[in-house]
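Shall we go through a protein fold together, starting from nothing but its sequence? Label the sequence line and the structure token line clearly, so we can match residues to local backbone shapes. Would you write everything just below, so we can both look at the same thing?
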Amino acid sequence: MSKLRTASAALAGLLLSTAFAYAAGPEVVAGPSKEPQCFVPWTDQTKFFKYPAKKGPYRIALANGFIGNTWRIQMIKTAKAYAEQPEVKAELKEFKVVSTGEDIAAQIASVNNFIDSGYDAVIIDAQNPTAFKSVIKRANKAGVILVAFDNTVDSDEAINVNVDQRGLGEYWGKWLVKNIPNGGTILEVRGVAGTSVDTDRHEGIQSELKASGKKFDSVEVVGKWDDGTAQKVAADAIAVHKHFDGMTAQGGSTGMVRAFIDANHAFVPAAAETENGYRKLCAAHAADGLKCASGGTGPAQVAVAIKTALTALHGEVVPQSIKLPLAHVEDPDFKDGENFYSKQTDNFFVGNSFPTCGINFTAQEIMGQSEK
């Protein structure tokens, strides 16, 4: 009887310690990470995580929010293309994608559903950076790895994968200051309201305009990172304000420039994202006075997020916050076949690769995927 009680107590202790291990989330350990050239810590103060190793194959879900623009559609296609690569596919029992729109509660519910359904990892492009704290705690208690990318989460208890979004805004702002020496009025086409990317990029742009000491005014419109929406709101702004000295777009860059062309507005310096259509227009109209800077973040961020989740599931060390490099090109360095593609669709983000992570996609590889 005593032996039975002892065995029962030992078993209970083991189960309890396992539960506490999950409840505590990942173990914080010393770096460096696995594949340090890919998994670069955000700062020298970034923590490193080590999750308990799990045996595959794994069930991984992508819980996307907003879907109504080219970047998000290409992101989902990129995720599917990455999941179909033989070495990745061999690790996956299931890969599922859901998009819940701009409804934050619906996105939270979808993540909770994946946790309750026993998925091993959930990848999120968060609609709101502060809304997922309770979800992160649930994921850690359940032993589910949560990786946020692009629009990340304000928490150091989940993994974040991103480029320096504020730094991208600062790059655009500095370029505009340099190319509009006397100051002036800037059309700023913003993204999806309430997201961390929109806020960070906007703050980066405005910080550089203000720091210049020159007289800059901004007219802000909401383009939702979408060409059609950006073209309409840019056209409305031109109709009301008549004249701009510069333009910048977080996305929907092609639509923004087309609005200026349709309005017969003189070309002004443009600092915007990496859409193929935008770069085609920059190259085609360079001789007409369209001077451009194109910088941004390829949708292949999602592939890095999936790779991060798989690495963590193997029990390898990864940073809590991973910093990815920016890609950019400026006038007069737009070259067909190198950094834009005249024979490809406008609705494609160029630079959709992260070579340091072994991730590189052709346009054909991505566009051949379903956006469902």
